[in-house]
Amino acid sequence: MAEPEVMLEIGDLHSNCLSERFPRMGLGFEIPATVLPDNLKPHSIAQICDRGGAGALWVSAIQAFNEDVLTRRFEVSLSKNATDLALGSNENVVNGPLGAAVEFLNLAARHKMPVTAGQWIATGGLCPAVPVAANDVLELDAWGCNLQLHVC
C-alpha cells in the first residue's frame, strides 16, 4: 500500500511561528507499517498517532514552508502504471495537513514521545491508499508538480 500525503519537516518544537515549527514541506508517499513483512514491523519507530504507523516515507517536491499553499484547497490526482486511480484534495485530511501536523506534535508532547528537528511528519491521505508491488510506477500530480515513485 502507498498513500499520497503532504509531509512537513519538524523544526523548532517550541516556536509558535509555523514557519519555524515546520521549515520545509513536501509531497510524497507513506508506506504503512501494516503492509511491511512481519520481521520488519518491530523496527518501526514512527508510530505515534497513526493507526498503522509509517513503515517508510518517500518525500519529494521539498520546498520552504508556505502556509497559504497548505490552507488553501488544492487537488491531487494519483495514477499507477499510467492508469488513473484516484482524485483527492487536502480537504480529505481532518483539519487539513497543517492541523494534522500540529495535532501530531501536541500528542507527541503529551505522551512524551521522542520527536526531533529534522524528522518528517506524514499528515494524512490526500486520497485513498493503493496497493503496490515491485516494478509499479506511482504518479502524483499536485502543487503543479508531477512526482513519480518507482517501486523496487
Order of helices and strands: EHEEHEEHEEE
Shape call: globular
CA radius of gyration is 15 Å
Beta strand %: 35-45%
- Biggest sheet architecture: 4 strands, antiparallel
The spatial strand order of the largest sheet comes to 3-2-1-6
Spans where pLDDT lies below 50 across 5 or more residues: none
Q: Count every beta strand, where a strand is a DSSP E run of 2 or more residues.
A: 8
Mean pLDDT equals 88
The structural class is alpha+beta
Instruction: State the share of residues found in helices, binned by percent.
Output: 10-25%
Cα-to-Cα separation, first versus last residue: 13 Å
Number of helices: 3
Give a quick precis of the structure.
The chain is an alpha+beta fold. 16% of the residues lie in helices and 38% in strands.
Topology of helices and strands:
Elements: E1 3-9, H1 18-21, E2 24-32, E3 54-64, H2 67-71, E4 75-80, E5 83-89, H3 96-110, E6 120-125, E7 137-142, E8 145-150
Antiparallel strand pairs: 1-2, 1-6, 2-3, 4-5, 4-7, 7-8
Structure description:
By secondary structure, this protein is α+β, with helices and mostly antiparallel strands. It is 16% helix and 38% strand. The chain contains three helices and eight strands, in the order E-H-E-E-H-E-E-H-E-E-E. It has helices at 18-21, 67-71, 96-110, and strands at 3-9, 24-32, 54-64, 75-80, 83-89, 120-125, 137-142, 145-150. Strand 4 and strand 5 (83-89) form a beta hairpin. The protein is globular, with a radius of gyration of 15 Å. The two termini are 13 Å apart. The mean pLDDT is 88.
